[in-house]
Amino acid sequence: MNNKIEIRLVENRQDRKRFVELPWKLYCDYPNWVPPLYSDMYNTLKPAKNALLRLGPYRFFIAEINGEAVGRLGVGMDLRLNEAKNKQLGYFTLFESIEDYSVASELFDQGLSWLHSQGAEIVTGPQSPSNGDDYRGLLIEGYDTLPVLLNSYNPPYYADYISKYGFEKQFDRFAYYYDISNGPNERLGRGVALAQERYNFTVRPLNLRNLDQEIQVIKGVVDQSMPDWPDMIPPSDEELVAEAEKLRQFAIPELVLFVENSENECLGLSVTLPDYNEVLVHLNGRLFPTGFIKYLLYRRKITGVRLFALFVTPKGRRRGVSAALYYHTMNNAYKKGFTHGEGSTIHEFNRRMNLDAQKAGGELYKIYRIYQKSL
After folding, report:
1. What digits encode the pLDDT tens for the residues 256-311?
2. Is this model's pTM higher than 0.90 or not?
3. Which tens digit of pLDDT belongs to each residue from 192-212?
4. Domain coordinates of the chain in residue numbers?
5. How far is Cα of residue 81 from the mean position of the Cα atoms in its chain?
6. In whole angstroms, what is the distance from residue 349 CA to residue 353 CA?
7. Strand partners, 177
8. Which residue from 59, 61, 69 is spatially nearest to 18, judged by alpha carbons?
9. Rounded Cα distance, 324 and 320, in Å
């Protein structure tokens, strides 16, 4: 039998189907893998549905042996990011492979060769396939529990394959676990109360009835607050509109919080969503015909939340704003019946945010790695 590995471009409907469905074969023996929705993954491959694919050239590859899909890889360039960073960066995403290094090696050979032809000088990844917070980074610690909403899960051997190919660590991203089954830490609450009194700020929930204006507030805070991260820049208006739609569908207003001073100036914000992975794990990728009934049933049983983002403006720093966002998020989540949460993911070099996460009671329990390689 011919076991030669063939790498092909994803070019048609059948290719996309094989690309999307491959993980269901690879993860059948991994109980902590959470199947994404098929519809979401198909949309990720469509420029009309995925803003990242409109920001630069991209390709998706599939590896086959004897006509059977055994691996996949997406690569591309975010020209908006490259212009802002004045660099020629490429990215890889959605990497999957059977336990055979030669498959991974052939995929990276093809993907990185194509990126080089497009002018890329450095490739980083795994990056989000949608330029969001989904599937960004390779899980290298914390395989024993389910990933929370939109975070990655992968076999341990992926790290070995990526390192063997010549990728090096760029940086790690941390996830913190919070037990709120008995409510937030009382000591934290007392400290937050003193800070709010001393610095005269209040905490309010998201106003879904005025979401357009709230999005502009979010943009203002993010533009002021986002550090010079190597892999991110402030979101565009188009990206914010997409995020607004997610908030409209999934947000609980009491878990999306804004800190304002006496002049109604926003000093910080945080975005926390229910962990819908607790629902997705029961659906096997499909909402219809019976998945929607399961969705309605299991969404009432969600016990966890994920704090996706927390930003504090320069004016709000060292005033307890971050602590207030952590405390009120945990307190509101506890009142809503949630028992635990995750704050993720935080760049390892963001010392202030990591310290704030730990002071709020977070336990580091998962690590995701971003790799880089010069071309």
Report:
1. 999 999 999 999 999 999 999 999 999 999 987 777 888 888 889 999 999 999 99
2. yes
3. 999 999 999 999 999 988 888
4. 5-173, 178-366
5. 17
6. 9
7. 342, 363
8. 69
9. 6
Kindly provide the b/e burial profile for residues 177-215, where b requires at least 16 CB atoms within 10 angstroms of the residue's own CB. bbebeeebbeebbebbeebbeebebebeebeeeebeebb
Q: Identical fold at 5-173 and 178-366? A: yes
Paired tokens of 162: 């990526």
Residue 101 structure tokens: 């290094």
CB 308 within 8 A of CB 279: no
* Residue with the two structure tokens 């819908």: 276
Any idea how long the chain is?
375
pLDDT of residue 131: 85
Give the mean pLDDT of 55-81.
96
For 178-366, give the CATH class: alpha beta
What pLDDT sits at residue 2? 63
CATH architecture, domain 5-173: 3-Layer(aba) Sandwich (3.40)
Measured in degrees and rounded to the nearest 5, phi and psi for residue 148 equal -85, 175
**Tokens 């052939």 -> residue:** 106
Burial of 49: CB neighbours in 10 Å, binned 0-12, 13-18, 19+: middle
**134 close to 277: Cβ distance less than 8 angstroms:** no
61 vs 45, 69, 139, 142, 176, CA distance in Å? 12, 11, 22, 28, 34
Reduced to 3 states (helix: H, G, I; strand: E, B; else coil), residue 310 is strand
Provide the token pair at 183: 């409510």
b/e per residue, 115-136, with b = 16+ CB within 10 A? beeeebebbbbbbbbbbbbbbb
- Tens of pLDDT, residue by residue over 95-142, are 999 999 999 999 999 999 999 999 999 999 999 998 888 899 999 999
